[in-house]
Amino acid sequence: MKVTILGAGAFGTALGEILEKNRYEVVYFDPRISDKTIAELTVGADYLLLAVPSVVVAEVVNELPKNIPLIVATKGILTDKIFREFSDYMVLSGPGFADDIKAGKETFLTATDQRIADMLAADYMKFDFTDDKLGVLMCGALKNVYALLAGVYNLEKYSPEWEKFIGEVAGEMKKILSTNGAKPETVDLACGIGDLRLTCALPSRNYEFGQILSHDKNAKPDKTVEGLTALDKIKRGEIVVPSDARHLVTLIEMSEGWA
């Protein structure tokens, strides 16, 4: 079977290596390295796997055939509107660093379809499951946003203050998911609390940039910081923010002073 992976970055290639070991034919589309178009590389594909940065998702998805099953592995997407045209789409998310996956370290992810687990079968790959595709997408974006704030606060991992923050944020995320039509219990899965705990500390790029912002509000990232992209979408009204989501409201207000 053939899988076309959109995005040849660290995470896309980490998943691609597992697929290749499981005897899938894997081809990559990445504008930085590809000399073929998306249309050419998706011919004959049995699955598409989306692993591009969230800022280019809309551009890439617009060119994809909508009748091939799509696995969304990109984090930072707050709504599922862009995927509703697909006849079959599923979501993969959770606390997995690409380097750990490539090194064969145990990784626990959330999948919305058993087919994902079957395709990525390896003794170090573990999964929990939900049918809440919207909730999994939202968790993958919100945890990056909250990681920025954890960095701004310079919270030390596993400290009482950090644990208190994580607990309060998990509660907020449940309110946000429920308000926007997703299942609040999705936050209890690997894609929610698991990824939140991983991302709200170093070496998370979002946490690290939050630390930079804590002493330089005019700082600009030299690499993609998904939390900033998601925060901008939230500020533009892409989702409804409950008034009692205190930490997120604080971050939105705080960010008005950033460059």
Report what the structure shows.
Helix 6 (133-152) runs parallel beside helix 8, helix 6 packs parallel to helix 9 (205-215) and helix 6 crosses helix 10 (226-235). The model has no long low-confidence stretch (mean pLDDT 96). The termini are far apart. It contains eleven helices and seven strands. It has 259 residues and is an alpha/beta fold. Helix 1 links the parallel strand 1 and strand 2 (25-29). It has a seven-stranded mixed beta sheet with strand order 2-1-3-4-5-6-7, sandwiched between helices. The protein has two domains: 2-129, 3-Layer(aba) Sandwich (Rossmann fold); 141-255, Orthogonal Bundle (N-(1-d-carboxylethyl)-l-norvaline Dehydrogenase, domain 2).
Which structural traits does this protein have?
Rossmann fold, alpha/beta, 7 strands, 12% strand, 259 residues, 11 helices, 7-stranded mixed beta sheet, 44% helix, N-(1-d-carboxylethyl)-l-norvaline Dehydrogenase, domain 2, single chain, globular
